[in-house]
Amino acid sequence: MVAVDIEKVLGEYGDYLLRVAYLYVKDENIAEDIVQDVMMKFYQNQRQFKGQSSLKTYLVKMTVNRSHDYLRSWKSKGLVLVEKLRGISAKRSPEQQMIKNEDNQVLVKAMFSMTLIYREVLILYYFEELSTVEIAGLLSCPEATIRTRLQRGRRQLKQRLQDENREVMYDVWNEG
Question: What's the pTM value of the predicted model, to 2 decimals?
Answer without folding.
Answer: 0.49
